[in-house]
Predict the structure of Protein translocase subunit SecY.
Amino acid sequence: MLSAFARAFRTPDLRRKLLFTISIMALFRLGSFIPSPGIDYGNVQACLADGGTGELLGLVNLFSGGALLQLSIFALGIMPYITASIIVQLLRVVIPHFEALHKEGQSGTAKLTQYTRYLTIGLAVLQATTYVTMARNGQLLPGCDVIPNDSFMTSLLIVITMTGGAGLIMWLGELISERGVGNGMSLLIFTSIAASFPPALFSIAGGAGGVQKFIIVVLVTLVVIAAVVFVEQSQRRIPVQYAKRMVGRKMYGGSTTYIPIKINMAGVIPVIFASSLLAVPALIAQFAAPEAGWVQWVQRNIAQPEAPLHIALYVLLILFFCFFYTAITFNPDEVADNMKKYGGFVPGIRAGRPTAEYLDYVITRITSAGALYLAIIALIPTITFIVLDVSTNIPFGGTSILIIVGVGLETVKQIDSQLQQRHYEGFLR
């Protein structure tokens, strides 16, 4: 693999793309440390050093590479764009116009991308306003005065800065996709999560029984990574055969191919949705009286990751969103109609409705295995941290590992394909 990296950097075009991608990733990390105007950076650092952070916004802070709790210009990170993309994708089921745009091809996709950009800015304004309000009220960083001048103009300036930072991140991600290597948004998320690993490892090693806990955490993480790589590379291949047909004087068709179906077609989306929904009751409880009975019940049974009810709800939500998201992204009827239109059929299965029923049967079975796999991967790190009495607010959860491994595999495949286009031996032998 090292020799493949060397060949990649010896190829002028590929070297230029790799260096451009690395430069954008470095710029993204630099922006995570530049404080927004009106923020007392010294107080923020002192509060973070005292451990004044809560676990409620851990997922959002993880995706921003720690920039959220530092209230930097990139505090919102990539989350507004992710949320907007998911909303636009879900709206295809509700709004026929969105589904029609999706079927139009490149022009329709460009229109949907434009809607996603507008929605990203709107969500960025909403999220920035929420975080600034929480910072002023002391709920984002408890006990810390991070905005000395809490006037309306100062707050408005911070909101505008954070919104502009979210727009800039969206532009940087699109630049990587166009001129670099890999998917830009995925690589920025990869950068944010990977940047949180070294501090978390040092914090584990520096605690009580640090060396033993450090070794166990690293071993568990490596085992989970190996399992994720194995499953993410696995796929069920449904054979498809195309009948021969005459067009003019030429014979077309007669080829055999397959439909690749991944075990985990939903990716990391179910885990993100489940984590976000479980954070909603705790978020609502933050604005209620602490002595209220329902608030204490929420804090005890839902807000705590080690609570049995929290774990059970987490698993059920992951299972539900796996089936829900797969049903949205893969339509057996549409695939069967396209196959029938071009003369394709699954051997032993009649074209049309029987093919759609067969595809639905296969997808249901595979999604069942994929949903269980996601739930197990998401729970193994949490259970390990509970057993070792290690803080669960560190970036070795199932979400982080799934994203890092998935993005890493996809990027390596793209570099490998570009190397093979130039008649080089790639990474994957």
